[in-house]
Every structure is written in structure tokens, then in C-alpha cells.
Design a protein that fits this description.
Radius of gyration: 23 Å
Number of domains: 2
Helix content: 25-40%
Number of strands: 19
CATH architecture of the largest domain: 3-Layer(aba) Sandwich
Number of helices: 13
Structural class: alpha/beta
Distance between the termini: 71 Å
Shape: elongated
Strand content: 15-25%
CATH topology of the largest domain: Aminopeptidase
Strand order of the largest sheet: 1-2-6-3-7-16-8-14
CATH superfamily of the largest domain: Zn peptidases
Oligomer: single chain
Length: about 425
């Protein structure tokens, strides 16, 4: 069975490489991946596979199953691209590019799914396999997504968060995925890497406008309040513990309207990143104190809107071990990068707190991730190699009847996760008169 699957992959891989590279040249932003959705659905129709589409606007779930009991394995990919201004293949409707590698995920995981369908393994082994394509992994395009939330089209800014709350993953036991690993390394794949989680904050310093030359003493300068707060945050950095991997970064999205008026509204978007939920929560308390201190010192009002973010990625050790065994059939030990931590974040971290989850780092790309020169460099490493070890891993999982009952460690229930999301999304308002 395992030797036959390699022959199937060799016979179909070009179709899925071509699909992925076409998506690379036609990027779309999160919750707008309509053309990408259509291209995937055409493939599913071609292979006569039933699916649900338009989940969380553009998401897809296709399932092949057996009448026999067994684990339900998800093959996961992401549909969206990255907001950017400069790339050879910019989006037709938005400034965006597939310079994070999501297009390659689609080709690899859909190719894996179709290869397993053609092998017809479920008739003998039992269980289910679902291909799940999730929208809006990149946390951006805020105005568009905030409008979707306002119009009750979605509840959360992240595609996986939205699909989790919609129940798309309720019947899933295990999650397998991949993602571009750091480029320009001698390694072919990356195992057991972890990602920071993050909390997203929108901050508004609210002052009083006045003529900046004639009567500034009658105004309250919100920009000064913001500057005091941001300086305080800089001084806090020495209190961040090395093992917590804390990063605090921000952009000022509104810095005032005209030099001739005292700025009365300053708006800041900010991320607090950390390796653990506890470290993010503790850092957030420090940041909020600094923000309040800056507002109080200049006599501003202050609004803090916490918009959630992503949980840290914690890879499942048992699943990693099973994948490693199959990877070593194709990759020598010295070509595997292990146990690295990245300060980046992804909403697959949310899934890893609920279900046994693995995301393998994949090589075969050139350029800077999120940069203007990113592209596929080696089709064998980027697509064909991961198809081979993912298909063999799925066969192992089905043959041994692995499920979350065997692999699960300390996980949140779906209800606990949903409560956590609700609790994170909060708004705080501090009135200068009350202070």
C-alpha cells in the first residue's frame, strides 16, 4: 500500500503543483479568497468528492469516509495571502502577495488528499480523512474584517477561529499541516517547532483640539500622551524574561490631522507576542499600566480594545514522532531542523490547544518570507517530498487507529476555547475626569 501511494503521487503531483503556482500568481486577501475557493472546488468536483464550501465565507471542508470506525484526520491548509505593496505577482483587487507560502500548502495538502482518495485506503482501514482549507490566517486588512463583524458575516478576525466556532472541527481527531520554513538553510524540513501567540490591541488616546500656535494651552495633546506611554513601554522591555519570548510592536495608524491643531485623537495598533498564554497575559497588564500612565500624565481619555489574536503553537509530540519516522524514509537526519522557536504567530496555534496538531516546516522556497522576492525554488522539496511523508503518515494513523483519545494531553474543550475567545475580546475606557 505504501509503495503504491508513491506511484500515485508521482502520477498526479504536476496537477497540484500547477494549481498551487497558479494561486501564487493570483493572490487574494483573507475572507476574499473567492477565486482560490473556486479553483479548489473544481478539483474536488473532478474527483467526485463531496464537500462543504463557503464556510466562514470562503473556507472548504471535503471528506472521504468509510463505514468502518477509525480516526478522523484533517489535512489542513490556508487560502489567503499577505498585504504588501511590492511583489512580481500582486493581487488584482488588493495589494497582496503569496509571500508566506500558503499557496504551496494548498497544493501539498490537496495533493495528499487526492492521492489517498485514489488509493482507496479507507475501504480496508476505516476512518475518515478531511481536506480543510481555512481563510484569513494572516491577521490584517482590519477595516474590511471589522466591517464583516459589524454586519454579522463573521464573529472573529481569524479564519480558523471562525471555523472552530462554527463547528467545522468538532468531529476531527487529528490535524496535519505544513508551512514554509525559514529560507536559505541547508535543511529539508523542520520538526517540532513552536510559535509565539499574540494579543492584538487597538489603542485610542483622546485629547482636546485647539490651535497649535494661538492657544495650545486650551488643548489636550493626545500625541504627547501616546509618546509618554510608548516611552514607558520601551523602559519595560528589560522586565521581559528571555524564556517568555516577549515582543511588543505597534504602528501609529492615526497621528493627528494637521500640524496647526493640537492632536485630539491618536490611534495605535499593537501586538503583544509571547511563548505562553500566561506570559502574554502578564505582559498585557504591564502594557496597560503604561498606556494608562501616559494618558493620565497628559490628561487624555484612553480606550483600549483587545481584539483577540492567536494562541501559541504547541506541537503534539506523539504525532511528531509518527511523522518523523516517515520523513526519515526520504530525508537524512542531518537535513532535519528540530525544536526551534519562532516569534511569529499563526492561528493553527488555536487548533493546537484543542486537538493534537502538527505543522511541519517545509523547504524549497527562495527569498524573504513576507518579502517582495519570495517564490518557489525547488518543487521536489516544496511539494512532492511532503506529499510522500504525509500520505504514509496518514496510512500509519489509520492502520493503528490513532485518535485524539490516544494522543490527547492537556487540551481545552471546544466550549472552554470559545469562552476564552469571548473573554479576550474586551473594551476598556478610562475617562480623564474619573482619574
Amino acid at each position: 500500500m505504501k509503495s503504491k501511494i508513491i506511484d500515485i503521487i508521482e502520477s498526479i503531483n504536476k496537477e497540484f503543483i500547477d494549481l498551487a503556482e497558479d494561486i501564487f500568481k493570483n493572490p487574494e486577501l483573507g475572507f476574499k479568497e473567492f477565486e482560490t475557493n473556486e479553483k479548489i472546488c473544481k478539483i474536488l468536483d473532478k474527483y467526485d468528492i463531496k464537500y462543504q464550501s463557503n464556510l466562514a465565507i470562503t473556507g472548504i471542508k471535503a471528506t472521504i469516509s468509510s463505514s468502518k470506525k477509525g480516526p478522523h484526520i484533517a489535512l489542513l491548509c490556508e487560502l489567503d495571502s499577505v498585504p504588501t505593496t511590492n511583489h512580481e505577482y500582486l493581487g488584482k483587487k488588493d495589494n497582496c502577495a503569496h509571500n508566506c507560502g500558503h499557496y504551496a500548502q494548498i497544493g501539498t495538502m490537496l495533493g495528499t488528499f487526492i492521492a489517498l482518495k485514489k488509493l482507496n485506503i479507507l475501504e480496508n482501514l476505516g476512518g475518515k480523512i478531511s481536506f480543510i482549507a481555512t481563510p484569513a490566517e494572516e491577521y490584517g486588512d482590519f477595516s474590511y474584517r471589522e466591517n464583516l463583524i459589524k454586519n454579522k458575516k463573521i464573529t472573529y478576525m481569524s479564519g480558523k477561529q471562525e471555523m472552530i466556532t462554527l463547528g467545522v472541527f468538532d468531529d476531527i481527531d487529528l490535524v496535519l499541516s505544513c508551512h514554509t520554513m525559514p529560507t536559505d538553510t541547508p535543511y529539508f524540513c523542520e520538526l517540532n517547532s513552536s510559535l509565539n501567540g499574540f494579543l492584538s490591541k487597538k489603542i485610542r488616546f483622546i485629547g482636546t483640539s485647539a490651535h497649535a500656535g494661538l492657544n495650545p494651552h486650551e488643548g489636550v495633546n493626545a500625541l504627547n500622551g501616546a509618546n509618554v506611554a510608548l516611552n514607558a513601554i520601551s523602559y519595560l522591555r528589560e522586565t521581559f524574561k528571555e524564556e517568555d519570548k516577549i515582543k511588543v510592536h505597534y504602528v501609529i495608524t492615526n497621528g493627528g490631522t494637521t500640524v496647526n491643531s493640537v492632536p485630539d485623537l491618536i490611534e495605535i495598533d499593537m501586538y503583544i507576542r509571547g511563548k505562553t498564554v500566561d506570559s502574554i497575559v502578564e505582559t498585557n497588564k504591564k502594557i496597560d499600566r503604561a498606556l494608562r500612565g501616559g494618558a493620565l500624565s497628559i490628561n487624555c481619555d484612553l480606550e483600549i480594545i483587545n481584539n483577540g489574536g492567536y494562541l501559541p503553537l504547541v506541537q503534539d509530540k506523539n504525532l511528531t514522532d509518527i511523522l518523523e519516522k516517515n520523513i526519515l524514509e526520504f530525508v537524512s537526519e542531518d537535513k532535519i531542523l528540530r525544536n526551534c522557536h519562532s516569534f511569529a504567530s499563526g492561528d493553527i496555534g488555536d487548533l493546537s490547544y484543542i486537538l493534537p496538531t502538527v505543522q511541519i516546516g517545509v523547504a524549497g522556497f527562495y527569498g524573504r518570507i513576507h518579502g517582495d522576492n519570495f517564490r518557489t525554488d525547488n518543487y521536489d522539496l516544496a511539494y512532492i517530498l511532503p506529499m510522500k511523508y504525509f500520505t504514509k503518515t496518514v496510512i500509519d494513523l489509520l492502520e493503528n487507529n490513532y485518535s485524539k483519545l490516544y494522543l490527547n494531553e492537556d487540551k481545552l474543550s471546544f466550549d472552554e476555547y470559545k469562552d476564552l475567545l469571548k473573554n479576550i475580546n474586551e473594551i476598556f475606557y478610562y475617562n480623564r475626569e474619573e482619574d
